[in-house]
Amino acid sequence: MADAEIIPLGTRGEPGRGTGKAPSSAARGLAGASGRPVRRKKPAPTDEGRPPRPAVEASTADGEPSVAEPREEPPATVGHGVATTRDRHPLRGIPPADWKAALDIAAREVFGTDWEPQLARLLAFLRRRVTGDYQLDDYGFDRELTERFLFAMLRPLAKKWFRIEVRGVENVPTQGGALVVSNHSGTLPVDALMTMLTVHDHVGRDLRALGADLVFRMPFVGVMARRSGATLACNEDVERMLCDGELVGVWPEGFKGIGKPYSERYKLQRFGRGGFVSAALRTGVPIVPLSVVGAEEIYPLVGNVPALAKVLGLPYLPITPFFPLLGPLGMVPLPSKWLMEFGEPIRTDEYDDGAAEDPMLVFDVTDQVRETIQQTLYSLLMQRGSVFG
Amino acid sequence: MAEHAAGPTRGRVVLVTGVSRDLGRRFARAVADHPGVERVIGVDVVPPRRDIGRMSFVRADIRNPVIAKVIAKEDVDTVVHMSVISTPGSTGGRTMMKELNVIGTMQLLAACQKAPSVQQLVVKSTTTVYGASSRDPAMFSEEMEPRRLAYGGYAKDVAEIEGYVRGFARRRPDVCVTTLRFANVLGPNVDSPLASYLRLPVIPTVLGFDPRMQLLHERDLYAALGHAIRARVPGTFNVAGDGVLALSQVVRRLQRPTLPLPSFAIGGVSSFLRQARRAELPPELRTFLTFGRGVDTTRMREVLGFEPSYTTAETLEEFASTLEPTGGRTDRLLADLERRLSGATRAEVEVSDRG
């Protein structure tokens, strides 16, 4: 009994029950830097090296790169002679295994039971991106990024916001080259993005969009366009893609269509010079007319500032009822109801060689495509109850 | 006359211009070792600094008619024109570079035209002739013209040189003229504007742009030139490794941090780098780093019959192995996280096994 009274609590700063050279963990926590050499070995590669870190990492493990903090502990309290309670990190006493268990449970609560494989997949994806270990095709199309990032962001917009209804999917060929020709509207090319997503989700093919050279001249926009599979609307690229059996999307109205005032909605503009028809004739691929209703109302274009647009090198500078007025909030598209109808393919392989050089024939086919889209637009508008129906 | 008739059997006599540069010297050495080649004569304004092997060097300026005497005296039957330079480098300013490139080529072609012994001309050109702009098609094939004519510099020199070469081909239809447009060459020994740019510890890029590029391994350059000499296929051919990489992929695979700068600031960086003698970003490289370029190599495969042994990605991999990575911290961090995670997964599997 008497012995028990003189056993001290702690070791009073002296090395504890170990040999003199390697103090116990309790002693290490208590002793200051009096025994500098035995402070700690180099951070071991095991978990022991950085006990409190996993907490931070796993909690932000959904890809926050901010975890890239230095590995060493803050040296603030090293070299401080007296052992005080402040020397100890408040979290140090808890062994890493407990942390891990706690985090496992927490993560399972939040993300469900299969969070780990999911997180592992995400990490593998991030690592591929960071090390550049992904493939681009000749045009700069990055399928992985488009499917996992761009389409994942657009899908809720298409389903919940615009409630896109798709008709005539069976008219899109499931293999071989084809040219999807669509009307263009909506101030910003949201309809092109939605068409790409719709074709990807309903047909299971990548729609390779054709963009004006302005798109590729603009920083960020041009890169994103190429990553999502777009290329410049020029004969060389169109024919190359169609010959390779790609599904190519074209919006022949161009800026005239997308930048037309709200009062002229659903009135098709001139279809360029019919370059898309001669490309289809040369390669003998079918033309699939596509009519999109709903995109006209997302940003109703009520005004334009041509002078400023000219200074900025843009085809038009839109004013919508909300845009400059509400600032960034005005960029939110109106939730109009969208209908998309793919028409019956127009065959081009039954004309003889040299048909592409016949301007009359090219104009005829162009008019046929244009008329089909215009008529379908009218009938879709009749079917759609109200703009926001 | 009898000598001429015996030409092919006694082995070929090859004249290589531009051997003071590394690419030219290495190629000339490799050709000299080929069994079908009797002699290789290297020509340049300055002597090559390194080992020239079995090649015999003639110090001659191709800008004056001495070159015609060399061709006549040595009875040259194959001329490989490699002295088209992309940077002024040690030769002096831009005026000097233009002189060497354009006037040099004119003199060389004039000499070839007068020499009846010449049967083949191979010109090392570059895909820079296509320029780089937002209006470019994704892939240039040989018959396409640049969308915007080069207003100066290397690109303009090359365009003019190719014009003279085409003129020569018209005037001497008996000579087999092969023009090879090489994509950006990369290799451990290559010293080009792009190579020194990629060797920078921090790589300045154009903000908001991510150019596509194709690369060609140094060895494939030698192989393509050698193949052109053997195959004797006239015409113009793009030569590039398979596959396309974006600049962002290139720098990530090199594990180098980037410094994105708005396009107007790149000029300043370029002059700073030139003064620091670290790298040079001539105008054609700047537009290339903004818009990128791709070339179609179908004709190379089907008509010329050449197949590069390195893809673009393999070329880069080998180039990367010679460099010390200066970045890659994010990847190390993610790898660390992944290790932890797989450790945790393993632990979980063990737990479930026990249970």
Helicity level of chain A: 25-40%
Q: In total, how many beta strands of chain B?
A: 13
Number of helices of chain B: 13
Uncertain spans of chain B: 1-8
Lateral strand order in the biggest sheet of chain B? 3-2-1-4-5-6-11
The ordered string of helix (H) and strand (E) elements of chain A is HHHHHHEEHEHHEHEHHEEHEHEH
Terminus-to-terminus distance of chain B? 94 Å
Shape of chain A: elongated
Order of helices and strands of chain B: HEHEEHEHEHEEHEEEHEEHEHHHHH
Q: How would you classify the helix and strand content of chain B by structural class? A: alpha/beta
Largest sheet of chain A: 7 strands, mixed
Described by strand count, sense and barrel closure, the largest sheet of chain B is:
7 strands, parallel
Give the tally of structural domains of chain A: 2
Task: Characterise the protein shown here.
With about 400 residues, chain A is of the alpha/beta class. In chain A, about 40% of the residues lie in helices and about 10% in strands. Chain A folds into two domains: about 50-135, no CATH class; about 145-300 and about 335-385, Glycerol-3-phosphate (1)-acyltransferase. Chain A contains 15 helices and nine strands. In chain A, the strands form two sheets. Chain A has a seven-stranded mixed β-sheet with strand order 1-9-6-2-5-3-4, sandwiched between helices. Chain A starts with a helix and ends in a 6-residue tail after the last helix. The model of chain A is unreliable at about 35-80 (pLDDT under 50). By secondary structure, chain B is of the alpha/beta class. In chain B, about 45% of the residues lie in helices and about 15% in strands. In chain B, strands 3-2-1-4-5-6-11 form a seven-stranded parallel β-sheet, sandwiched between helices. In chain B, strands 7-10 form a two-stranded parallel sheet. In chain B, strands 8-13 form a two-stranded parallel ribbon. In chain B, β5, α5 and β6 (about 175-180) form a beta-alpha-beta unit. In chain B, α2 crosses α7, α3 crosses α4 and α4 packs parallel to α5 (about 155-170). The longest helix of chain B is centred in the last third of the chain and has 26 residues, at about 330-355. Chain B starts with a helix and ends with a helix. Residues about 1-10 of chain B have low confidence and may be disordered. Classes of the chains: A alpha/beta (about 400), B alpha/beta (about 350).
